[in-house]
Every structure is written in C-alpha cells, then in structure tokens.
Amino acid sequence: RGFTNNFKKEFQIVNISKLDRIEEKKVDAKLMYEKGLVRSPFKPIKILGSGDLKKSVDIVATEFSKSAKEKIEKSGGTAQVL
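Predicted structure:
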C-alpha cells in the first residue's frame, strides 16, 4: 500500500566536527569507514556543516551541504564531489 520512491538516495551523514579529529590531510570514504564514521565505504556520504574545522583538509564525498563547503574552503581545504 502507498507509494515507495525507488529513486530516493539514502545518505550516510558525517558532520565536520567529526572530520576535525582525523589527522590525515586527505579524507575519503575508505578512511571514514576505517575510522568508524560511516558504516559502508560504498554507500553515498553527505558532509554536513555542524561544528568547526580548524585545519586544512581535502575531503572527497558524494555531497556537501552549503555550510560545510564554505567551512572547508574557509579553513584552506577542498571539497571534492565524487
């Protein structure tokens, strides 16, 4: 019964405050999985802007919120979309 959207994307959510704890300069899905931030390195990941980023980090993810992208670029890093 009802309607199920077959095209809905389910994202794994990661906040910037969690990425600030990682020591590496380049962060991707595999590294986030190894650090326990996401459950699977193969599912889409969305970075949200909750928290502060104090260091320059290059982040590769499926999607970024507007505030997350601004904070990453303000700290000197890059936000690369897969």
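Summary: The first strand starts at residue 12 and ends at 15.
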